[in-house]
Amino acid sequence: MDRLTEGHRRFHTQVFPGRRHQFHLLAESQAPEFLFITCSDSRIVPDLILGTGPGDLFISRNAGNVVPISSNDVDGTTATIEYAVEVLKVKHAILCGHSDCGAMKAALDRKALDPLPKASRWLRHVEAAFSHRQPSNPAEGEHAELAALIRGNVVAQLLNLKAQPAVARALAHDAISVHGWYYDILSGRIERYDEQIRRFLPLLEP
Ligand SMILES: [Zn+2]
To answer: How far apart are CA 89 and CA 12, in angstroms?
Structure first.
């Protein structure tokens, strides 16, 4: 915990004073342009990989970057999506999966979930990944099968996102655009899903 206390001390004494004006404005309201849905994994630091900061991203995180589709239930992710779209009027919703995702590894080896009853039930939501599995990339070697399934989960959850009532309404009015991304931890690169050609392409043009 000392590390966190020290980190906060540095923020409060060195960072905050120089940005006091920005925080002053943000203290009253927020108007983020982006809803960012990603995995809880500690290796994904959205502000670091996207060059964003306070007030930019409205973030929802959970194991496996899932958007549940059950209409009988309420959960934190769909409630967050509803608020972001209906109240904050975000212009873009980004669903971002990542390499080496533990949730997707568990989906491949469900036995690992035996001692985790809640995770086991939660990760039923990623089963649609199997029917959207992407072609394996031989360059990814021993990780190719997992990476193909993780990209499939991005496609599956992107469909669930578009099916959320608030998102579907906003899409019908061209008030929002949705994006499916795959972040590769090893290379630091992001791929985007192209819905026209149904393939993942580099976010950055070569
Ligand atoms: Zn993950």
So the answer is: 31
Q: Do the beta carbons of residue 95 and residue 34 sit within 8 Å? A: no
CA distance 183 to 41: 12
User: What average pLDDT values come out for the chain (206 residues) when binned by 10 residues?
Assistant: 97 96 94 98 98 98 93 86 98 98 91 91 93 93 94 98 96 98 97 96 90
pTM recorded for the entire structure:
0.95
Q: How remote is the CA of residue 108 from the centroid of ligand 1, in Å?
A: 13
The Å distance, Cα 96 to ligand 1 centre, comes to 10
Q: Tally Cβ neighbours within 10 Å of residue 170.
A: 22
Q: pLDDT tens digit string along 123-181?
A: 999 999 999 999 999 999 999 999 999 999 999 999 999 999 999 999 999 999 999 99
Amino acid at 80: T
For residue 32, report the distance from its CA to the centre of ligand 1, in Å. 24
Task: Judge contact between 30 and 55, C-beta under 8 A.
Answer: yes
